[in-house]
Amino acid sequence: MTTLLYLADSYLQTFEAKVTEVDAGSRGIVLDNSAFYPGGGGQPCDFGSVTIANATYPVERVKKKGDEIVHVLGGSDPLPAPGAAAHGRIDWERRYKLMRTHSAMHVLCGVIFRDYGAQVTGCDFEPLQGHMDFEFDTLGAELVRAIEDTVNQEIRSGHEVKIKTLPRQEAFKIPDLIRTKINLLPESITQVRTVEIVGLDLQADGGTHVHNTSEIGQLRVADYKSKGAINKRFYISVE
After folding, report:
1. Distance CA 115, CA 102 (A)
2. Whole-number Å distance between alpha carbons of 180 and 38
3. Domain holding 195: CATH number?
4. How far apart are CA 71 and CA 61, in angstroms?
5. DSSP secondary structure code for residue 83 in this structure
6. What's the CA gap between 128 and 216, in Å, rounded?
């Protein structure tokens, strides 16, 4: 089992760990601790490096396998043996851009849900850009600009972003905790991590976020399209 360090501290850039498993076929290693986000919920995995003994391996992909995080290593250095001590380092520039983008999407989601009652039907993002789909019947330029203006007002307001982990039964007593059309939380998950943009938004979420919306910068709706009768897509960038 890998202890997921990013759940408690999205700003953790380096960490110490031990190699617990090695898969020579995929050049994958499992660590007992990891600050690398493995991807999920629309957020891509982290990149970075792992130093073991005298070798520094680029981490080219990270994925979740049950309760473990597999780190796929690049380079040509021989793989380490189980039990080896490891020093991990996140590609912080990329991670922080992802944090800003993810938090920006939560502000967008919070504004649209509060002001228009529209639920999320899908999302995907990369550093400083992405798209988010909402259940809108109609969408036009005037409404999009009004939403963009309101989102940036909320970003500038400097809302604190709080992370909590609650027992599933307690978490699901919170109204509108799940903003997606489909509940993506399997019954096997007994502890639910919540991300709250204080005064604006509260959702179940397992990704990484900034501490305050003032860190986001500015959100721009670069484009919007109809993706179905009641499904409208916002293409956003963070500047």
Report:
1. 20
2. 21
3. 3.30.980.10
4. 6
5. T
6. 10
User: Could you tell me the residue range of the domain that residue 106 belongs to?
Assistant: 95-238
58-117: pLDDT as tens digits: 999 999 999 999 999 999 999 999 999 999 999 999 999 999 999 999 999 999 999 999
201 and 233 part of one domain? yes
The three-point CA angle 232-235-237 to 5° equals 155
Residue type, 192: V
Q: Are 110 and 150 in contact (CB under 8 A)?
A: no
Among 61, 90, 119, give the residue marking a domain's end: 90
Question: Which of 64, 90, 116 finishes a domain?
Answer: 90
Phi (first) and psi of residue 146, to 5 degrees: -65, -40
d(CA 26, CA 232): 39
Is the pTM of the predicted complex or chain greater than 0.85?
Answer: yes
How distant is the alpha carbon of residue 68 from its chain centre? 18
